[in-house]
Structure formats: structure tokens, C-alpha cells
Amino acid sequence: MQSGRSAGSAPVVAIVGATGAVGVELIRCLEERRFPLAELRLFASARSAGRTFSYRGEPLAVRELKEDSFRGVDIALFSAGGGTSKRFAPLAVQQGAVVVDNSSAFRMDPAVPLVVPEINPEAVRGHHGIIANPNCSTIIAITPLWPVHRINRLRRMIVATYQAASGAGAAAMEELRESTRAYLEGKPYENRVLPHSYAFNLFSHNSKIDPETGYNEEEIKVIRETHKIYGDDSIRIAATCVRVPVLRAHSIAINFECERPITPEQVRDIVGTAPGVKLVDDPQRNYFPMPKDASGQDPILVGRIRRDLSDPSGHSIALFVAGDQLLKGAALNAVQIAELL
User: Fold this and answer.
1) What is the per-residue pLDDT for 3?
2) Helix/strand/coil percent split, the chain, to 5
3) CA dihedral 61, 14, 228, 217 (to 10 degrees)
4) What is d(CA 271, CA 249) in angstroms, rounded to the nearest whole number?
5) 207-246 pLDDT, tens per residue?
6) Distance (Å, rounded) from C-alpha 66 to C-alpha 336?
7) Across-strand partners of 16?
8) Which of 108, 223, 292, 325 has a CA-to-CA distance to 115 between 20 and 30 Å?
9) pTM for the complete prediction?
């Protein structure tokens, strides 16, 4: 399904949730990547309407999101939460737009492609008006592993995430700043955004836990979305997702088992030329992926590549990755999908 614009003409693009942490990055990504658009329209809730952002040197005002906001829009980039997406994405499609949605609302819908351009760009062709952007942890974990999987199929993955405040939005980032300041000054602080004290603390991801499996929603997303994106439900996956007191960029420890034996040198060679990935693997200096280096960067950093000594068969590798949740984990991936369109 295509939008109503004429072939070859620049699209009109809308951002829904333009004032949020991901929305701000969407504006920046479109500008930095020189996305060929005819017009950019910014939408948010009524309380945010009237705010202005700079785009290509010109002020751009945020409009209140309404049911008829998508008339004349070709591509709508949504980053305003699942409830907003469920309500407004079908309306956008009815009015002729193609929606790239950053929420979890449509990810597991069989009729909606779930796309990481470095992995399954061809899936975009099967859209019916809505394309889903995967969970940030899923993107950061599986993008570096895809080129390995293509050469030597993955049989099992064990994932432990170290997730920054950016994953919970701008309000959580501000809560981390304020609570850290209060902690250092010896002042009391009452957290309002996240369920536990954030400064100098870490805790299990604050999504709902399934009483039957013991896994939280974030962990289930990593498992189910990997299966859908890779097109392989046979990969055995276990995930533990944790919030850490880092402002921006998620880090993930990954242990994976392949169908055939594989060496760290082979993985370095494969990852070193993979799109969207940068090798940061310097044992001499003990320098490996860190969120401070990944913040504000497009590539996912990969390092600490080593043999899993618990697997004498030589089929398993351990590594560590860091990626900017607001960029490749969200805004950048959405803009790359729009570029495919």
C-alpha cells in the first residue's frame, strides 16, 4: 500500500509526539540525514501545542493532535505511546498516510511488518498502512547478531540488558538528574516517574511481570520480537532486563550459541563490516562498548567478544554491546524505515 502522493514527489511528513525525547530525535534525524520531504508537521497533546522547534534553520510550531490532522500527510512517524497509536494510527492510514509506529501497539500483529532496515528491509513491502518499529532493547541486541546468524545460525541467546533512563522518556531522564543531585546534597527525594529510587541504584525493569513465566513485558518483547524479525521461532531466548542509573544509551550482555563451532576471530571479522555496527574491542586498553561512547552515535558498539568457556563444544560466544536508545533504538530506526518507503 502506498500513500496518495505522486511518484517521485517529496512526501509530507508528520511527527506525532514531537515534544518527547524520541520526537526531538526524530526531528534531528530527519534534518541530519537530509530526508527529502516537502513539509514537516509536528503534533503533540494540547498542553504541548504552540511549542516551537528549529528545522532547517526555520521555527516550526507544534500543533495539537486531532482526528483530522493527517490530511495531506504521506508518512507519519508516531512516538506518543500505545494508546495514542491505537487511536490515531488507523485514522492516519484512512487519510492516506503510511504510519511508522514506535510503540508496542502493533508489533506482534501478523499483518504489520516489524522492521530493522539492516535485517529485514524487504518486510516493508508487505505493509498495509502501518509499519512497527521494534523495542529498543531488541534492536540494539539483535542488529549486531544478524550477520552472524546469516552465516552460522543462532540456536540460543541469553540476554541481560542495562537500560538507561532514556528508555522511559524525558521525564525519567529528568528524575535521574534530580534524584542524583538530591542524593549528593543529602536531601530527600520522592520518585514520581519510576517505582524505585534511581540515583546510585538499579532495579528490574518496571514493566508488568507475567505470574506464570516470571518474565516481565520488556523481556517477553525481546524474545517475541527477535523471533518475528529474524523469521525464526526456533531460537531459544532468555532475557533479563534491568534499569541502571545511566541517562542515555542501553548496554546489553549477550551470550549466543551457534549451529556450528565459531571463534571470536570469526565474529570480529563478521561484525567489523556489518552495517549499523562499530567494533570497539581493545583488550590491551580494557576498552569496550560504554554508554558514554554510544550516546549520540548512530552505530551500535560491539566488543568484549570472547569464547564462552562454559561451552567446550566451541559453539558459543559472549559479547557486550551499547547503543543509543533514542537513536538506533527508536528515532533513527524509524527514519531509516521512512527512507525505505
Assistant:
1) 44
2) 30, 25, 45
3) 30
4) 20
5) 999 999 999 999 999 999 999 999 999 999 999 999 999 9
6) 26
7) 43, 78
8) 292
9) 0.93
What does DSSP say about strands 98-101 and 130-132: parallel, antiparallel, or unpaired?
parallel
Instruction: Classify residue 251 as exposed, middle or buried by CB count within 10 Å of its CB (0-12, 13-18, 19+).
Output: buried
Tell me, yes or no, if 241 is annotated catalytic: no
Which of 149, 205, 250, 315 is flagged as catalytic? 250
Marked catalytic residue, from 29, 136, 241, 258:
136
What is the separation of C-alpha 66 from the centre of its chain, rounded to a whole number of angstroms? Answer: 26
Spatial distance between the Cα atoms of 131 and 112, rounded to a whole number of angstroms:
6
Copy the grid coordinates of residue 181: 543531585
* Three-state secondary-structure class, residue 217: helix
Q: How far is CA 136 from the centre of its chain?
A: 3
**Active-site residue, 250 included:** yes
d(CA 94, CA 76): 12
Q: b/e per residue, 270-307, with b = 16+ CB within 10 A?
A: bbeebebbbbbbeeeeeebbbbebbbebbbbbbbbbeb
Alpha helices by DSSP H, listed for the chain, are: 21-32, 82-94, 136-142, 146-151, 170-184, 217-230, 264-272, 291-294, 332-340
Contact present, 31 and 56 (Cβ < 8 Å): yes
Q: What is the DSSP string of 117-169?
A: TTT-GGGGGG-SSEEEPPPHHHHHHHTTTHHHHHHS-EEEEEEEEEE-GGGG-
pLDDT digits (tens, 9 = 90+) for 161-176: 999 999 998 899 999 9
- Work out the mean pLDDT of the chain and round it to a whole number: 95
